[in-house]
């Protein structure tokens, strides 16, 4: 922002930096937490694990049955003292203590839906109920993810950034 001074020169002033969002102090951004990532061996889950492991105070636990994910996606963390990998199907209860749950476990491709629809439904329904039950039991925060498939077939291909507006009408 520029201001004119009395001698005709321009004086440059800068805005103060924005105030950090109060969300930065929320439980989702705190350190020193035990975090469960279901479906953490999948594409999105493994990248989330990479970001979570950047915080040197967090312990990350991945539960995955490798139906669509791969242990190779996590090989750089295997053996790390703050990382634990559990071969587990979320359709079965998981009895651990955690502070946060990122629930990404679900076969997210029409190929898998057609190949094994019962497994897909069980993972979505029973798996989510199990994770909600775990969150309630231990007082953890939970983030439930999904795919665009829940909205059905889109009316346009590819979807623009504003396509979501059509879903609300």
Brief overview, please?
The chain is α/β, with parallel strands linked by helices.
Please trace the helix and strand order, writing H or E for each element: EEEHEEEHHEH
Total number of helical segments?
A: 4
Specify the biggest β-sheet: 5 strands, parallel
CATH class of the domain at 30-146: Alpha Beta
**How many extended strands?**
7
Widest sheet: strand ordering = 5-4-3-6-7
Bin the strand percentage: 15-25%
Question: What's the overall average pLDDT, rounded?
Answer: 84
Helix/sheet category = alpha/beta
State the end-to-end distance: 41 Å
CATH H level of the domain at 30-146: which superfamily? NAD(P)-binding Rossmann-like Domain
Q: Kindly identify the CATH topology of the domain at 30-146.
A: Rossmann fold
Using only C-alpha atoms, the radius of gyration works out to 22 Å
Helix coverage percent of residues? Answer: 25-40%
CATH architecture of the domain at 30-146: 3-Layer(aba) Sandwich
**Uncertain regions: pLDDT < 50 for 5+ in a row?**
none
Catalytic activity: UDP-alpha-D-glucuronate + H(+) = UDP-alpha-D-xylose + CO2
Membrane topology: Single-pass type II membrane protein
GO cellular component, one term: Golgi membrane
Pfam family, one: GDP_Man_Dehyd
């Amino acid at each position: 922002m520029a201001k004119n001074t009395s001698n005709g020169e321009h004086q440059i002033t800068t805005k103060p930096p924005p105030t950090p969002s109060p969300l930065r102090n929320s439980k989702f951004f705190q350190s020193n937490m035990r975090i469960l990532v279901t479906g953490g061996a999948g594409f999105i889950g493994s990248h989330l694990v990479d970001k979570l492991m950047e915080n040197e105070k967090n312990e990350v636990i991945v539960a995955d049955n490798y139906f669509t994910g791969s242990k190779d996606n996590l090989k750089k963390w295997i053996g790390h003292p703050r990382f634990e990998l559990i071969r587990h199907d979320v359709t079965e209860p998981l009895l651990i203590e955690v502070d946060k749950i990122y629930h990404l476990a679900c076969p997210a491709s029409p190929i898998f839906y057609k190949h094994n629809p019962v497994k897909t439904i069980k993972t979505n329904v029973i798996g989510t109920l199990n994770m909600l039950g775990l969150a309630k039991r231990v007082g953890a925060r939970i983030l439930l993810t999904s795919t665009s498939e829940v909205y059905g077939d889109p009316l346009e291909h590819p979807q623009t950034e504003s396509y979501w507006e059509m879903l609300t009408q």
